[in-house]
Amino acid sequence: MVLNRLLGLFSNDLAIDLGTANSLIYVRGRGIIASEPSVVAVQTDARQGRSVLAVGGEAKEMLGRTPASISAIRPMKDGVIADFETTEAMLRYFISRAHNNRRTLVSPRIVICIPFGITDVLKRAVKEAAESAGAREVYLIEEPMAAAIGAGLPITEPAGNMIVDLGGGTTEIAIISLGGIVYSESARVGGDKMDDAIIQHMKRQYNMLIGERTAEMIKCTIGNAYRTEEVMLMDVKGRDVIAGLPKTVEVNSDEIRDALAEPINQIVSAVRTALERTPPELAADVMDKGIMLAGGGALLKNLDLLLREETGLPVVICDDPLSAVVLGSGKLLGEPALLRLVAHSA
Question: How far is Cα 153 from Cα 71, in angstroms, rounded to an integer?
Fold first, then answer.
C-alpha cells in the first residue's frame, strides 16, 4: 500500500473510457484532459509496414478523404477491440498525452472501461494492449457501473439504481445494488447504428450518398426520438448515386425521426426487457427513483420523453452524459476501497 502511494507520486494515474465513437482521458488530480474520436490514421508502406500518422480528431478529419496508402481506422467495434495493434497505438498516444509527452520514472495505473459481460479473452486483450502501451497496473470496470458512479447514483446502498448508458457501439442497461450489477442487458445498438440508419435513408429517399461524419451531423442537429410541434430543416450535401455529381437536398426532423425508428425501438425494447427481468424488490426501487440516462446517445433530442412514455417511469439525463463513464472511473482512482469493490484487477 505504501509502495503504491509512493509510486502514485511519480506517475499520473489515469482512467480511459475507450469508446467505439469517442475516447475520454481522465488524469488524477487534473480531471478530463482530452476527448478524442476513437480513430487512428495508419499509413501502409510495402517496405516499412504500418505506421501511425494521427490519432483522434486529426485522424477523424481524414475519414473518407484518404489516398490508397492511408486508412483511417476505428479500432473499436461494438464497444470491443476489433484491431488490437491499432488500439495499442491509440492507448500509447493517450498515455503519452496524459504525461504531456514526457517520459516518467514510473508507469501509471490505468482504469479502463469495458462493456458488461465481454469474454475473458477480450478482457485479456484490453489488459495486454494497456500494458504494452506502458501501464503499470490495469483495472477493468464495466461501463454501466462507471456511468452510475459518474452520474452520482448511490451504488453501494441496498437499493436498486437503474442506469442506461447509450454509447456509440452498444447500449448498456444495468440495475445496480450494494456495489454490484444485479442484472444487465446489453444491446448492440448505439450512435453508430443511428448514423447508419440515416445513411441508408438518404440513399433510399434521395439516391444520395453521404459519409459517417455527415450522418452524425444530421443526427446531432435535427435528430429526435419523439414527435414535437416544431419541425427543423437542414441542408445536406452529398453525391448523387445516379448522376455521380455533388448535390444538396433539404431534410426535415420528422423524416430523420422515422429513419431512426428501428435503432431507437431496439433501445426501448432492451430497456423494457431489463425492467421485466429485474427482481421485484429492486423493481420497486426503480419505480421510485426512475431511470438515469448517460452516454452520448442520451443527448438525442426527446429520447427521455419517449422512454418516459414507453415505461411509465421518471427518466433523468445525468449532468454530463458524454463524460459520465470517464468521470466515474476517474473518481475510483482516489477511492481504492471502492475500486477494489467494483473493478476487475486484470
Answer: 41
The answer to whether domain 2-37+78-145+324-345 has CATH 3.40.50.620 is: no
Write out pLDDT tens, residues 172-188.
999 999 888 998 888 88
- Look at the chain and count its residues: 346
Is 315 within 8 Å of 304 (Cβ atoms)? yes
199 contacts 217 by C-beta, under 8 angstroms: no
Same topology for domains 159-189+262-317 and 191-261, yes or no?
no
**Domain ranges in the chain?**
2-37+78-145+324-345, 39-73, 159-189+262-317, 191-261
The CATH topology of domain 191-261 is Actin; Chain A, domain 4 (3.90.640)
Q: The pTM is what?
A: 0.85
CB 26 within 8 A of CB 36: no
Per residue in 56-75, pLDDT (tens digit) is 888 888 777 777 778 888 88
Query: Exposed, middle or buried: residue 96 (CB in 10 Å: 0-12, 13-18, 19+)?
Result: middle
**Phi, psi of 272, deg, nearest 5:** -65, -40
205-215 core/surface letters (b: 16 or more CB in 10 A; e: else): ebebebebebb
Lateral strand order in the sheet of 161-166: 180-187, 171-177, 161-166, 291-294, 315-317
The answer to whether residue 1 scores a pLDDT higher than 50 is: no
